[in-house]
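Q: Okay, next protein. This is Transposase from Psychrobacter alimentarius. I've checked the sequence twice, so it should be correct. Can you predict the 3D structure?
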Amino acid sequence: MKSMGLKSCQEKTHKYKHADQMHKTHDNLLDRNFRPTAPNQVWTGDVTYVRIKSGWCYLAVVLDLFARWVMGFSVSDSPDSALTTKALQMAYQTRLKPSGVLFHSDQGTHYTSKAYAESVSSCEGMKQSMSRKGNCWDNAPTERFFRSFKTEWMPKDGYEDIFEAKSAITDYIWGYYQSVRPHSFNDYLPPAEKERRYFNQNLLSGV
């Protein structure tokens, strides 16, 4: 690699501060079944850090595993339950309040808190599932999304401030990831196109 002028781009480790008191964990109901047969069956959520000049801000997302569609996201200067709740409620409203969704996340305090449990309870029939402690592979698709954003879009030195970060994240998700970026899981279709074909096929089958 040295002779060819190549450098390895590895993300630096980051430790989250504890923003909420522990409330309750849940069993791993998803069990790495990352291939639902339709939208709104399984959603996953996670939080990652985004570098800004003054330190860090935090991004929470909610992913529909069917097409890896990012339905909800939120950016804040604190990785707390307010951040994850806002992302979940955005997803719930965007999807027109579906019922019976399985929501999977890690065991971070922003997902185990009482405040987040109340947010989940407000979504009709939603059940919580959680990764085993310290096992990032139990939520691999969401981790993969964060890696894609950081390697494809985020500048190496991060953003000027949280406002620039929010703008860039919005541009990436809505302007590129959802409608342009091919995804190997979707047979190299963007999430929006995979969902469009699914719904068109179901409409035609009903005629």
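A: Here is a summary of the prediction. The first helix runs from residue 81 to 94. The chain has one domain: 42-205.
Q: Noted. On to the next one.
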